[in-house]
Structure formats: structure tokens, C-alpha cells
Write a structure and sequence with these properties.
With about 850 residues, the protein is α+β, with helices and mostly antiparallel strands. It is built from 34 helices and eleven strands.
């Protein structure tokens, strides 16, 4: 292994000779070994890395490195970084300087003019030898003229022959020359890159081989991506954790202090850390106890369907009797017949209808097992093993070309089931994690619960249709008796619909626990599924940051998907920065300790991620495995929490949540009582109601918006780790970060924004002093200008299924200061109601 100084010299020499990938690997290794980030050698290496990144088209890595240099305490490095940033902000339109999404490695120098990066002043001239090295690094490599098609073919053929004959050094030289000078859009370019990886490995150049292989995992060509993921395993040490192969982690940048600056393109800066893998069981199929994780699935399914069928019968009977006035027995028979026929038809036709909708909305592509094997060999083994053991026909497999990671199953019978995943699943997850997701979905098929959910969803929709029909016909009915009957039927049916929705959600959450349990038993790898759930949440958050439009896929498949996208923010945010899994585990404290989490989970299609990870951790313990998220430590910590503070404030908060209306009805009741005993006049009850409403609003305002004069600076991850966080009681906070988009993608007039700091993402809720009109005008004229701008925010933090901040002030040095007026409007409403309550009797006296 070369010394640190030797690595620096070797890296600069590689940069000088145009071996940019090798230069990156050597300079990154040097930076890792350097303990002083302000040392002259360290800054020299950073400058070299920035140039190498720019030469290989990796502007997403060059930009943050230049930002870091521009913020350096060293004046020369600072000037160099600032000037490099000016160039990178407006790069010339040459192929060698554009970020290439599909093939970003060693772009051809189709225009051999000197790079403007090379024309920047030389930074950190510490000594004569260093200045000479830097000057040499500025020189352009020779022989950079583009290749003709014939020359390219000959050069690639020579490189392949050298590789085949194990003349690795010669192969490296020929293939590097090809990659520098050939057209990267040609079909053979990817083949040359794969051959170069093999040549690097054969020549003992493991670091550049790993760097190039990691970049190839991001290729848009599935075959290249799959090959790179598989070959990477032969390059990494056996005990090394497998690197993240997601779009947000294209290549680790060692040693560079990367600020939280967001690139103006599509890829966020700042890759998440890798979760160390804790291992898997030696044997599969071991029976695991659920230990009261969830209600019995069969019982839950039976009770839910029985109640829903009963509701449909009662609703149908009341509707038919209200219209026709026929006798109860005939009405009952008709309603039973309608229910049975309708549900039977829907049950068998719903998969075909879903197929049509999937193809129309999401362009679902049906694929074979062989194609899935290219992305995840272990997933194919799981599918084949489960189908063989359970005597099932292999499900119809689909892929949706969407980078939001998700998976879902639907159908009417196990042997006609459909199992669909999105492309994002293969992007964000490793092979073993993908396999557990497929096992989870197969669990739905084995348990028949996907069919039960199809039927239950249909029954709930029937109830809703009866409610709508009764309501509409009742409004048009001329006969008062029929109208009253239909209104009663509509009210009853609506209550059934609400109850049915909660039953459906309960069944949906129960079946997810059982599918997780099935995946843990089938694969013997509950840790991989825990990891997959967290990484799926991270992928949903990342994709949400990259688009200005809402995802049709995530909205349309929320109930079917493996996780609820609305609850992804917590786990996804934590994973983005958590190099230590216990940090993620602490975020989950809120999920299973805070009563607000239980309250809000009632309206969720899936259990909270923390509860699922906790259950999977118990399965890992039963298998004698270490747990990656150390949930037992988190559980121990939960036992030390102040239960009085948790549950006592929750009961109080539930009252405060509606305290203004409690005050209104209480005041009205007192006023009516006083009027009935003859001590007050008729207007007093209304006055007391207004005073009660205003007083309740004032109390709620004080608790929701406490004093913020002594606010502390914090970050999103710290806020998300607070198990006492509430959606009602605001916590005064100050955060710094970058605005990354609107809170509601696709809504061009939305005033709310999304801010990201180094640890995560949070929503910013704005309130204009001019009310809703002011919000609309701010969203229409100003909000867009703050996107991608660094800001400092002051406000009240709240946490529900998603975290958000009610803004007080947002400072932006490049724009202006924005003031928000949540407390102002609440005070106006409360004081106005109280004042009106006192003066109303006097006003109406005249």
C-alpha cells in the first residue's frame, strides 16, 4: 500500500495522464487517510478530485466539493473554489462537460479544447514541488482527438484481445484510451467499460475497478446495471458492507466535507450512509412466534367481511324499502340477490379491470422470471421455492417504470394473482432486500388476504354508492314520507361507510404484519426486510424531492403498496444520514410510544414503520441473529419515558384540539339554561356561545404557539427523535437548510414549502397576514423564487404522520425575509369572538 504522500503524487500523476477514474480512487484514498482537513496536501487533493470529477462528467460530485473549497479557510483554495463554481454553473455545451445520466464514465473528448476548469488559477502553492505537480496536473493529456467509427472498433478489438490474453496492463491502456475518445452514445461503449473493469481487476488496480463498477450500477441499461452489481461483489472484501447502489449514492466522496447544497439538476447531494448488515439465518422455514404482534388474520378477515356483508344487506334493504314500499321479506331477498350477484361479478372481474387500469395509468410491463433474475437472482429463487412448497402457480409478474420504490399484489384467486413492483425497488434495494419484498408480497397470496381485501374494498364501495344514491334521490323526492325515509337511509349508510373504512384499514394493517412474518420465515432474513422498509421510505422521500409533480403511482396504489407513502418521511429522513442504525431506531420511538401515533395510525393503510421493524427484530432474535436497528435498546429507552407527560398531555390535547367548539356548546347550553329559568334574555345564549368559542380559541392559541424568544438552533433528525413531539403543542425551533420544492408538488399556487438540512426534510407551513388570499398570492408570485435557496427558519415544530413547521420567519440572504402570521390570525379570531359576544346584545338592542 503506497504511503499517503505517494498516493497524492500518484493521484496527481494519474490526473495529468488523463486516467481520471484512477486519479479519483487514489485521491479519495489519500483524503481518507488525512487527519487535518485544512492541510495543504488535503486541499491539493480536493482540487485534483474536483477536476477529475468534472472530467468524468460527475458534476453532482464536483459541485459540492467546489462548495467545500469555496468555504475553506485557505484564501487560495477559497478563490479557486469560487472561480470553479462560476464555471460549473454555466458549463460550455461540450460532451465532456455534461452530466451523462446513462453512461457517466470517462466521456469522450470530442472537442479537445482546454477545459475552463484547467484555466483556473493554481491553488495552494505551498512549495516549489507542489506547484510543479499542480502545474503538471493542469496539462491536458495527449492523444485526445475523437475516434472515427473504424478507429474505435479497432481500438476496442485490440483492448479485448489483450484482456483475453491476460495482458492486463496493455488492456487498461487501450480501453482507457477508447473510453476517453470514443462516442459514449454507441452500443459498444458500455462493453468497453465492463471490459475496463475486468482489466483493472486483472492488473491489480482494485480501487479504480470498484469506482468504475459502482458508476456502472447507475446505467440506464438493465443488463449493464445487473452485471455491475454482481461483479462488484467480486471486487469488495468479503467482510465489507455492500455499498448503496441508489441514484443518491453514485460514488462515495471520501474526505470531502460536503455541505448541504442541492444541485440544480435532479440528483440530491449528500448520499446516505450504508446500514451495516447483521446477517441472516443459516436455515429457512423456521417457525417464528408472532408474540401478539397483531390480531389473528383469519379471525380479523372473517369478522370484517361478516360485518361488511351485514352492512350491505341492511343498507340495500333500507334503500329499497324507502323507494318502493315493498314488504321486508321481498326486499331482503332482492337485496341478498343483488349483493351476491354484484360481488361475484366484481370478484372475478376486478383483476382484469385492475390490469386495464395498471396498463393505462402506469404502463405496467409484464415480464418473465428470467428478467427478474437479472435484477435479483435471490428473488427468483424465493418465488420458485414458495410456489413449489405451497403448490401455487407462479404469479403474473409486472414492472412499472417508476423510480418510487413500491410493490403490490392483487387478484381474485392465488393461482391468478398479479405481483407488480416498480423500477425504484431495484434502484434502492440490494438483492437480499428485494427478495424479502417479493416474499412479503407472496405472503399476501398464500394467505389469500389480497383476495379478501379486494372483496372487502368492493363491499365498502357498494355501501358508499348506496349512500350517494339515497342522498341524491332523497333530495329530489316530492313525497315527504319517502324523502324522510331516504334521508334516514342515507345517514345510516354513511355511518356504515365510515365504520367500513376503519374496518378495512384495520384488516389492511393486520395483513401487513402477517406478510412480514411470512417473509421472515421464508427467507430467514428478517433484518433484510427491516432494512428494505427503511430504504423504501428513503426512496419515496428522495423521489419526492426530485419532482415537482405528485406521483400517480404512489397515490393510486397507497392501500396496495408494501408501505404507506404518507408515513415515509420519518424513516426516510433518518436513513438519509444515519450511519449508526440506532439513530434510525430512536426516530421510531415516536411510532410505538407516542399516543398520537396510535391515534393517527387508525387512518393508515399500513402499520407505522417503527412497529413493523420492532416485530421483525423479534423474529431476528428468535433466529439468534443480531438486530440491525437495536430495537431492544429503543424499547428499554421507551420504558424510561415520562408516561404522565406522554399520556396525560395526550388526553388534554384531545380536549384542546376541539376546545373552541366545546366552549361554544358549553356557553350555549349555559345560556339556554339561564334563559329557561327566566333570568336572561334571548340573545344571551348566543353571546355566551361566542365568548366560549373565543375563550377556547385563545387557550388553544397559547398552547399551540408558545413564546419563541429563547429558541434553540437544532436539526430535523433531532426533532424527529423526540418521542414527546405533538401535532398540537408547538416546539419553538430554528433550523437552517435549503428549500427544495413546494409541499404540494404540482400545485403551482401552493404557499407551503419543503426544506432540507443536512439531516432530513421538513414541511414549512406559511400563513399570510392577509389570510387565504395572501397565501394564494405568495404561492403564485414568490414561493418559486425560494426553491434551491439557502434559508434560516424560525417557527413551531409539530409532528404527525409527517413533520412540519408553522413558520414565524424565513430569512434568505439571496432574497428577502418572509414573515408568517399563524398566531396573529388565531388571536384575531379569539379576541374578535369574545368582543362580539359582549357587544352583541347591545348592538341588537337598537
Amino acid at each position: 500500500m503506497p504511503s499517503a504522500s505517494g498516493l497524492l503524487q500518484a493521484g496527481l500523476e494519474s490526473l495529468k495522464q488523463g486516467r481520471y477514474l484512477e486519479a479519483i480512487a487514489q485521491l479519495e484514498t489519500f483524503c481518507q487517510s488525512c487527519s487535518d482537513p485544512q492541510a495543504q496536501d488535503y486541499l491539493q487533493a480536493q482540487i485534483g478530485m474536483a477536476k477529475a470529477y468534472q472530467k468524468t462528467g460527475r458534476l453532482d460530485l464536483a459541485l459540492p466539493l467546489c462548495h467545500s473549497l469555496a468555504a475553506s479557510q485557505n484564501p487560495q483554495a477559497q478563490v479557486w473554489g469560487q472561480q470553479a463554481l462560476k464555471f460549473l454553473a454555466t458549463p460550455p455545451a461540450t460532451p465532456s462537460l455534461q452530466t451523462q445520466e446513462s453512461e457517466p464514465i470517462v466521456p469522450p473528448a470530442s472537442q479537445p479544447s482546454p477545459s475552463p476548469m484547467a484555466e483556473q488559477p493554481v491553488a495552494v502553492p505551498v512549495s516549489e514541488p507542489e506547484a510543479e505537480l499542480e502545474a503538471e496536473a493542469e496539462a491536458e493529456p495527449v492523444n485526445q482527438s475523437p475516434l472515427s467509427p473504424k478507429e474505435a472498433a479497432e481500438l476496442l478489438d485490440s483492448g479485448n484481445k489483450a484482456l483475453k490474453k491476460e495482458r492486463y496492463a496493455e488492456a487498461v491502456q487501450l480501453l482507457e484510451d477508447y473510453c476517453r475518445r470514443a462516442d459514449s452514445s454507441t452500443r459498444d461503449y458500455s462493453k468497453a467499460q465492463m471490459a475496463l473493469v475486468k482489466a483493472y481487476k486483472g492488473n491489480g488496480q482494485i480501487e479504480p475497478a470498484i469506482a468504475l463498477c459502482r458508476q456502472l450500477t447507475l446505467s440506464e441499461k438493465p443488463s449493464v446495471e445487473t452485471w455491475a452489481k454482481q461483479f462488484l461483489g467480486s471486487l469488495l472484501p468479503k467482510d465489507a458492507p455492500e455499498p448503496e447502489l441508489s441514484p443518491s449514492n453514485p460514488s462515495p466522496t471520501a474526505g470531502a466535507e460536503q455541505p448541504s447544497v442541492l444541485k440544480t439538476g435532479t440528483k440530491p447531494v449528500g448520499p446516505p450512509k450504508v446500514i451495516p448488515k447483521a446477517g441472516r439465518a443459516a436455515a429457512i422455514g423456521v417457525k417464528l412466534a408472532m408474540r401478539e404482534v397483531a390480531a389473528n388474520l383469519s379471525l380479523a378477515s372473517g369478522v370484517t367481511l361478516s360485518l361488511l356483508v351485514g352492512m350491505v344487506l341492511i343498507a340495500s334493504l333500507s334503500f329499497l324499502l324507502s323507494i318502493d314500499g315493498i314488504n321486508p321479506i321481498q326486499g331482503l331477498l332482492i337485496s341478498i340477490g343483488v349483493t351476491l350477484v354484484f360481488n361475484t361479478v366484481v370478484f372475478f372481474l376486478s383483476p382484469l379491470l385492475m390490469d386495464f387500469m395498471q396498463g393505462w395509468l402506469y404502463a405496467t410491463r409484464w415480464v418473465s422470471l428470467s428478467e427478474i433474475k437479472r435484477y435479483s437472482p435471490e428473488a427468483v429463487r424465493v418465488i420458485q421455492q414458495v410456489c413449489q412448497d405451497k403448490k401455487l402457480k407462479e404469479p403474473r409478474l409486472g414492472i412499472i417504470e417508476d423510480q418510487n420504490p413500491t410493490a403490490f399484489t392483487y387478484g381474485s384467486l392465488p393461482n391468478s394473482a398479479r405481483l407488480v413492483v416498480s423500477r425504484g425497488l431495484f434502484t434502492y434495494l440490494d438483492d437480499d432486500e428485494i427478495a424479502t419484498v417479493y416474499a412479503h408480497e407472496l405472503g399476501h397470496i398464500v394467505h389469500w388476504d389480497f383476495a379478501v381485501m379486494t372483496l372487502a374494498s368492493t363491499l365498502v364501495q357498494i355501501i358508499y354508492l348506496i349512500y350517494v344514491s339515497a342522498k341524491e334521490i332523497g333530495e329530489k323526492a316530492g313525497n315527504k314520507k319517502i324523502k324522510d325515509s331516504l334521508e334516514t337511509a342515507a345517514l345510516t349508510t354513511y355511518i356504515f361507510y365510515v365504520v367500513g373504512e376503519y374496518l378495512l384499514l384495520f384488516l389492511s394493517r393486520t395483513r401487513e404484519y402477517y406478510a412480514d412474518h411470512f417473509a421472515a420465515e421464508t427467507t430467514g432474513n428478517p433484518n433484510a426486510l427491516s432494512r428494505a422498509l427503511v430504504k423504501i421510505a428513503y426512496g419515496i422521500v428522495e423521489q419526492g424531492q426530485r419532482t415537482q409533480e405528485p406521483s400517480k403511482l404512489m397515490q393510486g396504489t397507497r392501500a396496495l403498496g408494501i408501505s404507506d407513502p404518507t408515513a415515509a418521511t420519518a424513516a426516510g429522513t433518518a436513513y438519509r444520514v444515519a450511519s449508526e442504525p440506532q439513530k434510525i431506531g430512536r426516530v421510531f420511538l415516536w411510532d410505538f410510544c407516542n399516543p398520537w401515533a396510535w391515534w393517527m395510525e387508525l387512518t393508515s393503510t399500513h402499520p407505522l414503520t417503527g412497529k413493523r421493524v420492532r416485530a421483525l427484530s423479534t423474529y431476528a432474535e428468535q433466529l439468534g441473529l443480531d438486530t440491525e436497528f437495536d430495537m431492544s435498546r429503543v424499547i428499554r429507552e421507551s420504558r424510561t419515558l415520562n408516561k404522565k407527560r406522554l399520556y396525560g398531555s395526550f388526553v388534554t390535547d384531545l380536549i384542546i384540539y376541539k376546545i373552541e367548539w366545546i366552549g361554544f356548546w358549553l356557553g350555549l347550553l349555559v345560556g339556554i339554561t339561564l334563559m329557561m329559568i327566566g333570568t336572561v334574555k334571548i340573545l344571551v345564549p348566543l353571546s355566551l356561545a361566542l365568548i366560549g368559542f373565543g375563550g377556547g380559541t385563545l387557550v388553544k392559541t397559547i398552547l399551540m404557539y408558545p413564546d419563541y424568544q429563547r429558541v434553540s438552533t437544532t436539526d430535523v433528525l433531532t426533532l424527529m427523535s423526540n418521542p414527546y413531539a405533538s401535532p398540537l403543542r408547538g416546539q419553538p425551533v430554528q433550523l437552517s437548510g435549503t428549500i427544495i420544492g413546494r409541499a404540494n408538488p404540482g400545485y403551482k399556487f401552493g404557499a407551503d414549502l419543503k426544506m432540507q438540512d443536512e439531516t432530513g426534510m421538513v414541511y414549512l407551513h406559511y400563513c399570510s397576514r392577509f389570510g387565504k388570499l395572501g397565501n394564494f398570492l405568495f404561492g403564485m408570485t414568490q414561493a418559486e423564487g425560494f426553491i434551491r435557496q439557502p434559508v434560516t427558519t424560525l417557527g413551531w415544530f409539530r409532528r404527525g404522520m409527517v413533520p412540519w413547521i408553522d413558520l414565524i420567519r424565513m430569512d434568505c440572504e439571496t432574497k428577502w425575509t418572509v414573515h408568517s402570521y399563524h398566531r396573529f390570525w388565531s388571536l384575531c379570531l379569539s379576541l374578535g369572538a369574545i368582543a362580539l359576544g359582549f357587544i352583541l346584545p347591545s348592538l341588537l338592542r337598537f
